[in-house]
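Task 17 of the worksheet. Students: predict the tertiary structure of the chain below and write it out as structure tokens. Keep your answer in the requested format; marks are given for formatting as well as content.
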Amino acid sequence: MSTAVSVESRVSRVEVTGEVITAYLVDGRIISVPLAWSWRLSEANSAQRANWTLIGDGQGVHWPDVDEDLSAEGMLHGIPAHRPRTRAASPRATTPANKAVQPTSRARSVHGARSGRWPATRTGIRCRPASR
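Model answer:
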């Protein structure tokens, strides 16, 4: 006969210093993770860090001033909060979706637009200008 014990990790209180986030669990365990794991809390001031509320029945903690949520399970399993990428860093964000892509001069030349001849393409299919 086997017995499974389910231990749910619930936070009773939390402290945030300039270096660590410390969560005190209801069963007596203490979890400490580096403050750098939460980029929002690391950029917050001490008053914002001190203003927290429990989520659910202690499954996590919410800091309303900086819109940060950390779960007890995430801290136990070592899952840091990653800073989201900005849209400006993405090349797609700077190019309009409906911008027409123009062929390069080499591509126009290779396909005969300048010379009037239409050579075979890489697939072996000959391209001809549309009849008018």
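Marker's comment: The two ends are 85 Å apart (CA to CA). Helices lie at 39-43, 46-50, 72-77, 91-94, 105-110.
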